[in-house]
Design goal:
about 450 residues, mainly alpha, Amino acid/polyamine transporter I, two-stranded antiparallel ribbon, about 0% strand, binds 4-fluoro-L-phenylalanine
């Protein structure tokens, strides 16, 4: 089968940034920021980005680019080239866990994507702005209880994603990133300007800029490790989801990335766009929430319950609501494409399937999981595992376990076993200084495994 590639460096950067920028940035980051002390959360997040995620991103993209293969066989191919033993074990923890992760991710991501579409349609019809303030929470709850509406909206997203993925890497994925990302950032800036100039928005801005030491563990009664660990685990889980790290998506996009292009430049840009999008989302949502006299710690409902209230009190609220939900739709599509592509790429590679066939099979797998999750979440089917409905379970497994296990495997694989071919691959297109090699080695061998082990141990015992 002919190997597909991105047409240009920017094609890769924007597609990978499109994968990264999604509901994780716009829906998840602001509410976590609101729950974990604003600036304290942001600082921990940025530290994690530099010490753990940055080297892991270089590692994941390089594994893909060096092996030019799918997320499971990549470990075997590189492992064989350095005479590594236990190749199945590496492929199992690095590859198959990524497959489990993306499948879980698909199943709950389409549900939230469906909510976005529903709110966009409500905003378009003008209904959203007419709902009584006291009814907004009930409206959201009603949506989450209706499996039919959620299924229809989610399946529309699923079809759209399938069509783009069928169109291929250059014509579908790359083009979507190239056109959608600039529009996305233009909308971001527009909304930011509006949000920060609202009456009373300063309280939200100062919430975002004031350090609340208790979230870093410093309380009036001394140091509290539990509080710090809560902020740390939330930030680390968020970083994985937000950067699409540890799901095989960067690995697969890396396998389409030309070895002639500069890896560092690409990673820098992807991280920059992703972090910018997360921070801008917080700057859009939190000041607006404060200006409406609401609480920033209201959790996942922030985007769907609190924000419509803000739009109702804004002059031109109809326009801003439409623009905002459109932003969410665009960001969601560029992310679902990449989640989808991991499985499509696997089927094409492993079973020698044609792209459109593989994409249709993935559509049915994703559709089945998503339907099951929706039925459980809406209460239409009484399926609970460990006391959690399937939506909460999938989100929890992905943000705490699968991405962390895959990332830990990647860190150990590159840090201890495959540093040579990976550095060789990066060197083909960029100057690798000895300072970078040291940083890469120390972070992958010690810092990332330590951070990830802490996350996993805390998750197991909490
Ligand atoms: N990074 C996406 C977001 O922030 O919404 C989510 C995501 C995309 C996760 C692709 C995993 C993935 F493979």
């Amino acid at each position: 089968m002919k190997k597909e590639n991105f047409g240009s460096q920017w094609g890769f950067i924007l597609a990978a940034a499109g994968s990264a920028v999604g509901l994780g940035n716009i829906w998840r980051f602001p509410y976590l920021c609101g729950q974990h002390g604003g600036l304290s959360f942001i600082l921990v997040y940025l530290l994690i980005l530099f010490l753990i995620c940055n080297p892991l991103m270089v590692a994941e993209i390089s594994i893909g680019r060096t092996s030019k293969s799918n997320c499971v066989d990549a470990y075997r191919i590189i492992g064989e080239s350095v005479g590594l033993k236990h190749l199945r074990l590496w492929s199992f923890f690095g590859g198959w866990f990524a497959v489990i992760g993306v499948t879980l991710c698909l199943s709950f991501y389409f549900l939230v994507a469906g909510w976005v579409l529903y709110y966009f349609l409500e905003a378009m019809s003008g209904k959203l702005l007419q709902i009584e303030q006291s009814q907004l929470a009930a409206e959201f709850e009603q949506l989450t209880k209706s499996f039919s509406i959620q299924l229809i909206c989610g399946w529309i997203f699923l079809f759209t994603t399938t069509l783009i993925v069928i169109a291929g890497v250059k014509k579908g994925i790359e083009r979507a990133g190239l056109y959608l990302m600039p529009i996305l950032f233009a909308i971001f800036i527009l909304l930011c300007l509006r949000s920060t100039t609202l009456d009373g928005a300063e309280k939200g801005t100062s919430f975002l800029l004031t350090l609340q030491p208790q979230y870093l563990g410093w309380t009036e009664n001394g140091f509290n490790f539990k509080l710090l660990s809560e902020t740390f685990t939330a930030a680390l889980g968020q970083a994985f989801i937000s950067l699409s790290l540890g799901f095989g998506a960067l690995l697969v996009y890396g396998s389409y990335f030309s070895p002639k292009e500069n890896m560092f430049k690409a990673v820098r840009h992807i991280e920059f766009f992703d972090t910018l999008a997360a921070l801008l989302s917080a700057v859009i949502i939190i000041p607006a929430i404060f200006s409406a006299g609401m609480s920033a710690s209201s959790g996942p409902g922030l985007t769907f319950i609190s924000l419509p209230h803000v739009f109702q009190h804004l002059s031109g609220g109809h326009f801003w609501a439409l623009i905002f939900y459109l932003l969410l739709i665009l960001a969601t599509v560029t992310s679902t494409i990449s989640i989808f592509e991991v499985l499509t790429n696997l089927l094409m590679n492993k079973l020698n399937m044609q792209r459109y066939r593989a994409a249709i099979v993935v559509m049915f797998i994703a559709g089945f999981c998503f339907t099951l999750v929706t039925l459980s979440f809406s209460g239409a089917l009484d399926i609970k595992i460990w006391g959690r409905d399937l939506f909460t379970l999938a989100d929890w497994l992905v943000s705490t376990y699968t991405a962390a296990i895959v990332s830990l495997t990647m860190a150990l694989f590159v840090g201890y076993k495959a540093m040579k071919p990976i550095i060789h691959n990066i060197r083909r297109s960029a100057h690798v200084s000895s300072a970078f090699t040291r940083y890469f080695l120390v972070t992958l061998r010690y810092i990332a495994p330590l951070g990830l082990s802490i996350l996993l141990i805390m998750a197991i015992f909490s």
